[in-house]
Structures are given as C-alpha cells and as structure tokens.
Amino acid sequence: MRKYNSPSPTAIVFVRYLGSLGVLSLLLSGINYLTLLAPGSNIFQMQRCKLFLLYFFVLFALPVSAQTAVEFIENKGQWSDWFRYKAITQGGEVFLENDGFRYVLCAEQNTRRIDSFHVGLLRTPPLMRFHVYKVTFDGCEKPEVKGLEPQKTYYNYFLGNKPEKWKSGIHPNLALLYSGLYRGVDMRVSSEANSMVYEFFVAPDADPKQIRM
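-> structure tokens emitted (213 positions)
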C-alpha cells in the first residue's frame, strides 16, 4: 500500500486564518461596545474579557479551521462532463477524472487584483493567472468511481440559463474509491490536513508494476 500527498501551496491557509481573525476582530469590537455600556464596567474588565476570548479562539477555532476535511463533490451534470468529481484543497481545485487528476492552481496575486478592481483601484478587469497540470494513470482500466463517507449537508447548483443543468441536493463525500483502476488494484482518495491524498490497494496476485503515473 502506498500513500501519496498531492501538492499543496500554503498561501490559501494564510487567507483562511486571516478570514478567521477578521471574525475575531468583529467579536472583540462588539465586546468593547457591550462592556462599556454595562454598569460599573472598566477597561480592566474589558481587556480581561478580550484575552479570554482570544485564548478560546486560538485554542479551538484556529485548529479546526486548519484541519478542515476536503469534500469531493460529484459531477451530476451541473458542470462539463469531462470529470467525475471536484475538490477544493488548500492548494487549489482538483478535478478527478477516470484516468487521473487535473490540478488548477491559482496565483496569489489573483485575489489582490480582484479586490483592487472591485474597490476601483484598477479601471480594467485584471489578468488572472493559473497553472494547470494533470497526473495521468498510464494504461489504467476504466474504473468504477464511488463516493464514500457522504455528508448530511448538500449543495444546490443553478448555473447558467439552462434549467436542465440545474442540480440540487448534491451531498459531498469525504473519500472516493476507484475500483479496478488496474487489474487487482484499487485506489482510495481522501484528505489529510486539507490536502488530498490517495492510496493504492494491491491484491495478493496483482502486479504493482502496473501502476504508472
């Protein structure tokens, strides 16, 4: 059994933490306001309350945010039909096909360019930069791809103006099973620390040399 980690640049993790800290800032501002309105309040009480909330946030909220599991969303016709599942990792988007994975990595400057355009610092739409590459399983069979660990939450997609492409009630999965990727070889796709990982399971009478990437 082999396990492989997919590439995972860390820029988006930093953005995720910044988003969490922004929520914390709003909470602290609200506490300042409520504490100053409370009878007999003073600056010492306010600072003590802020420190307690900051400790609670760092202890619980940040680790949970950093360890979010990757969701694999089935393509049921809401997107183009060249891939089976889609996942969003800390490094970018991954499109899972029958014979491999296609990674779409976003440049760090893209977010700043979009924000600058929205606030009027840029007059023309910015040029967005991406890098796309594919990992292909050479000589593989046509596997059966099945979602594992379905979640209770679901997504609705109303994309474009064609009602036949609108899909609703799509439950994400936390893992996928590629059955029969090669003869006697299955592959399980899941995640660790918000990065996609995949494992091969080779039957006793199967040849692991079939696996070529």
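The radius of gyration is 23 Å.
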